[in-house]
Amino acid sequence: MSESPAGHRRQRYQRTAWIVLALVLLAFALRTFRLDGYAFRGDESFTVLFVTQPMDQLWDEIRNIEPNPPLYYLLLRGALRLWGESDWAARFLSAWFGVLAVPLIYRLGRALLAGRAAGKGPGGSERAIGEWAPVLAALILAINPYQIWHSQDVRNYSVWPAISLFSLCFLVKALRHPSGGRPWLWVGYVVTALLSIYTHYYDAFSLLFQNAFVLLFYWRQRAILGRWIASQAVVALLFVPWLLFGSSRPLTYQAQTEVPGFPGMAGRTLSHFAMGETLPEALASALLPAIALLAILGLVVALRRERRLLGFLVLYLAVPLLCVWLLAQWRPIFRERYQNVIAPGFYLAFALALAGLAVPALTSGLARAGARARRLGLGLAAVLGLALLFVPGAIALGNYYFDPAYSKGGDWRDLVAYLSEHVGPDDVIVQNYPDPGLAHYYKGPAERLVLPDRSAVDQVGNLEVDRLGTGRTLSRLLEEHERLWLLPYPSEWDPEGYVEGWLERRAHKAEETQIDVFRLVAYEWAAVAEPEVPHPRQLRLGEAVQLMGYDLEAQGGCRVVEAAGDADLRLTIADPGTCTLALTLYWRALDVMDENYTVFTHLAGAGSQIWAQHDGQPQGGGFPTREWFPKDVIVDEHRLALSGENVPPGPYVLEVGMYQLESNTRLPARGPEGESWPLDAVPLPVVVEASTGP
To answer: N or C: which terminal CB in the chain sees fewer CB atoms within 10 Å?
Structure first.
């Protein structure tokens, strides 16, 4: 006696249930394997430090500083209270939700594909596609390197898609009933939709896609439309007040990243979601067209099955992507993870494409019809499609798990182990970039601080470094501590490397070492004797520069001797063609300067005609004026060669000064009694005469 159709359905359900359970276990294994294999990256360290601070401070900073909503932080805070604050424990919350997404995408796929076309096609192929496409989607998500990466990251980018999938499952099941479904489905939808948008503000774009889908395909069904409007009203009522009064950060947060055009954004998003971030870029770029073709094929299969299914997937993918791109035109910030909520839509499209190829190739109907060649072609295409997703994914996973070049960040653990061994309680550790990894891992006795000190949170790259305040702090730290340990890092926080440059010029470098990606430099206080100035002067150029004096030497057809009277020296030029002057200027910095100034040294004759000159930044550009600090003494040499043998006999003047190259504006020169000179060119007390001429 043959088994009933209900029995067949029960057997198929049990079979797929066991497969999905196996995929859940596989996802769990992949997401917990080497869960703490790499040290935290900066954002992870920040998150743990953020949620473990006192509750009143955490809540205040969620409202006023942090640009993400509160749910993930509160969940993580509770989780760390339950199972500790180790790296493994902190990442486990993300791993758990990453695993949860696997059965949820299966349930969403089942709900979407249980439509009117379920029994069409030869040999029940449409029914088989409806059964196997959700399983394939769960498989793709379970082994996807991008989702595994974020499931091992202490941020909200695996929690968000899982909760959103939960919400979509409720929604799709409710929409399947002409009457709008049971009330508990809508209650579940509202609750999970709220949880999703309280996990990431960009979930508003997912809600926009859902509204577009319902209004386009269900606008004639009043029962559904009424419940939909009511559910959206409840979501808005429970979220908009938080957006307006609970936190100001979503509307005021400013940052800046590279924003590609819309095709570039779509391509990067698809590439990352399909193949991860740890695949060599050249290989990912080469495979991207085939990946895009596979997604398009999935949409074609959706269209053949049901127009609503195609509409759901297209809106699922396109609306949030377009919204993020439009928002980036106003606020230029983009990361692929900001759209991770739509990644399941791509996996469903891939699964439909693979099922649409594999199922007809495996059905007996095609064989009986004599379409063996077509069956073979479809089977080969399905195998290639599977390989297109799984082989690059396996390479990306191998890179992520085992290749340190693809690690999330530097090895803070090794660095902190070195610091714990070598840094004493009387030392100080300085970072020139506020990476919270040091604060998270280092628990030693040495003082830690970040320089330059910045009070603003946003638009760091547009803020000037407080060079005077930073230099004073560094000077104080060197005086008060045995050693200053610097972790220099190129960033917009210290765009010109001011901190390291200041220390290199004014402190003794005692040690330098490389630990993974980190460069660690130890400095000690160095007392520098002020140089003796052969011919002192007390002149000021502007408010920040003092000319302490000079020295002059001559080579070739000229000579310098001591002079009597008001002059210091006498320079006699006998052979202009071979005469070269070496003029050394001694500058003292009185204040910091915002511009780089060029020093000019001129040998001028009658009518201010210049016969020899040398213009250049101090020390040949090695010590530009923007790097000067009060009390610095700069020894600055300039060499002047006369312009030829046609130098007429007579008196000459050796004059110096400074000017800003771009504007050609000279610094005003003043003597000790307030005297000034034409064109702010300071004449040095040197008697200059050329004794021969043409």
So the answer is: N
3-state secondary structure 77-146: HHHHHHHCCCHHHHHHHHHHHHHHHHHHHHHHHHHHHCCCCCCCCHHHHHHHHHHHHHHHHHHHHHHCHH
Residue 562 forms beta bridges with which residues? 569
With contact defined as beta carbons under 8 Å apart, do 526 and 508 qualify? yes
Q: Which residue has the higher pLDDT, 217 or 367?
A: 217
Q: How far is CA 422 from CA 209, 269, 411, in A?
A: 56, 44, 17
Kindly report which listed range (227-241, 328-342, 420-434) carries the lowest average pLDDT score.
328-342
The structure's pTM equals: 0.85
Question: At 529, is the secondary structure helix, strand, or coil?
Answer: coil
Residues contacting 159, CB < 8 A, separation 6+ = 72, 75, 93, 94, 97, 199
CA distances from 500 to 259, 486, 675 (A): 31, 8, 39
* Residue range 535-690, CATH number: 2.60.40.2550
Rounded to whole angstroms, the Cα distance separating 224 from 230 reads 10
Burial class (CB in 10 A: 0-12, 13-18, 19+), 586: buried
* pLDDT tier at 454, thresholds 50, 70, 90: confident
The sign of the dihedral angle between the CA atoms of 486, 490, 491, 492 is: positive
Is 117 within 8 Å of 126 (Cβ atoms)? yes
Residue of 191, 187, 194, 173 whose CA lies nearest to 227: 187
For 556, the 3-state DSSP assignment is coil
* pLDDT attached to residue 286: 96
224-237 burial, b at 16+ Cβ within 10 Å, e below that, comes to beebbeebbebbee
Looking up tokens 């960009």 gives 202
Domain extent listing, the chain: 13-405, 412-525, 535-690
Q: Does pLDDT of 676 surpass 80? A: yes
Three-state SS at 497: coil
How many other C-beta atoms are found inside a 10 Å radius of the C-beta of residue 18?
10
Query: Which residue bears the tokens 């749910």?
Result: 71
Contacts of 565 (CB under 8 A, 6+ apart): none
Task: For residues 456 and 118, give the distance between their C-alpha atoms in angstroms, rounded to a whole number.
Answer: 58
pLDDT in the model for residue 118: 43
Q: Which tokens is 626 given?
A: 């923007």
Amino acid at 347: Y
Any idea what DSSP says for residue 341? G
Query: In the chain, count of helices (H) and strands (E)?
Result: 22, 18
* 3-class secondary structure, 689: strand
